[in-house]
Amino acid sequence: MRQSKMIELWVGVFVALGLVALFFLSMQVSNLADYSADEGYVVKAYFDNVGSLKVRAPVTMSGVRVGRVSQITFDKQKFQALVELRIDPKFDNLPEDTSATILTAGLLGEQYISLSPGGSDLTLQQGSVIDLTQSAIVFEQMVSKFLYSKAEGEKKASSSSPVEKNGSNAVQAEPVAPAAP
Amino acid sequence: MNVFIRLGETTLAMLQKLGRSHLFLLHVLSGVPGILLRPRLLSAQVFSLGVLSILIIAVSGLFVGMVLGLQGFNVLSDFGAEESLGVMVAASLVRELGPVVTALLFAGRAGSALTAEIGLMKATEQLSGMEMMAVDPIKRIVTPRFLGGLIAMPLLAALFSMVGVMGGFFVGVGLLGVDDGAFWTAMHTHIDFWDDIINGVIKSLVFGVVVTWIAVFEGYDALPTSEGVGRATTRSVVFSAFAVLGCDFVLTALMFGDA
User: Can you tell me the ipTM of this complex?
Assistant: First the structure.
């Protein structure tokens, strides 16, 4: 009898240990602790380009997380990406003309949405739309813009003198041409 | 001609064994309700399979975590990304190393013991003796062991992962000077509860089924001689290792393939 009581004790300790380990993994290691499930209100924002924004990406204000991205879909009427942001209920006084920007954390980090407050007295409600949005910066677009503007600048710089030369040639040529016949 | 006969014999024998093992599993599962009414039998098995494996699992987990911390730090510090050490240690432990290494150790520590025990019972005709007394040896002997392994495996894997993260923390933060807060915060933001933790638990459950199933079947199917039991024990560990690694690939492809 004592023997089997000991076994039960140890099994109990073992199961408890295992459950504690699972609890530790879910609370301390994973992000379960900040799953605030379906609380809060949803606001919408249209973006021309969401880049690599993911569902559950953080929504921040002054760098502090105030919500998460709950859904990303494509609006086929507007040809824009529709992003739904779930904002924590305690931040219920965001002005209506708040603007949303997709930013990147660090050089290669994940993308997130940053909100900057406006000055309106009306506040964002469940289902309201953020009008002022700024799309994600796509690295390739930036590089091609940079190269394009650089090439443009070089052309301008190098062509400024030949243009004058051509111009003077043309000016010279013109009097010559009528003189020829 | 002889070669083909051999080949055919081997193939048929393999198929037969596969079929036998599945019928065996069904028989084992049919004994589950009876065992749940007598939890004493179960707790004795959880003790011998789980509790007695804690030491080897915890020590291995600690060292695996510490080695991950050291190696990860060496590589990550080249990129100035020491803060990601926590993520690296936790992700590799929770997703892969926890379930897989635990299953391999479990097969060596508990699976081989199961096979040897049941094989020896068969060799010494204890199983036939039970049948003579109209006690179904599969339901009475095999089912509690199978269930015990099933319960013990996920708990052991969770323990392994936790101790491993502790080991990585000890080496990374304690010895190498990674920032304490960054270690945990980066882990928090990058490890997802459903995608990582729950998938890891599912993996360890599957491995638990596979390893215990192979162990009890090899024992029950062993030739009732001392040599036969020895061979069955070897086969049990080897097949378990193959099956665990193969299943791991399939499960990983299913769980993380589209991410």
Answer: 0.83
